[in-house]
Amino acid sequence: MFTAPAWLWIMFTVAGSAAQTARTAMQRELIDVLGTIGATHVRFLFGLPFGLMFLGLVALLFPDPLPPVSATALAWIAGGAVSQIAATALMLAAMRERSFVVATALVKIEPVWIALAGALFLADPLTPAVLAAIVIATLGVLLTSWPRPSHGGRAPSAGSAVLGLAAGALFGFAALGYRGGIGALGGSSFVAAATLALAIALTLQTALLTGYLAVRDPGTLRAIARAWRPSLFAGFMGALASQFWFLAFALQSAALVRTVALIEILFALFVSRGLFHQRLGVREGLGLLLLVAGVAAVLNSA
Fold this sequence. Notes:
80% of the residues lie in helices and 0% in strands.
């Protein structure tokens, strides 16, 4: 797609993972107040002003004009936007059933699907070494999320696993849609294409969910307005994470970006222990080791 230093997409991915962990933790706290759909909407409604601010800064700081938006680019981005809405709602619902870190792990099963679909639909390169590394990292995620005795707490449910896996599949669709949209926008600047794609996606998502809630559940909109302070932080962190993701998608295949992004599990582990006082067992610890090994192999192969 675009050219840049070979290491730059890695920096964007790590930064996006850290920001997304903070946003997800805040969204989880908002579920009890706003419900699943309300907490989902927060990342888009309060993220949109920051997404537009990022676009304004890019237009101001970069001399090249923003690329034109073709029907093809809009279709790719719209598909990614709708998939992300559904994926976020399913992820937050899964977190009601399982620990923060395990629910995050279930969602992160997406890279294998992205690798295969990206090679098929976007002609992203996929070598046996890269596919093997992605599989290793994904196995680590599966091991981390495998049910274990709850030690007196509520046992994990099959429903939470289904929700998490479905969310991961939809996040995969979203990643492919965004990479396809950024590529279809083109232009001379990957920063401009990625930032414009983000602004379009957030605008579509905000319009869709605001319209839905206005018709079906206006009380949730009022609750969101009352909870604007924590929602503003969640929206900013969500927009910041997405900005880094989109920059990474402009430079590297969605499969590699989302595999390296699995380090979010490590960030989620720190959040679980420090914020939610949740612990991992030996099996989950071994899974994290596999995850780290797989991500390291991806970086070595890229």
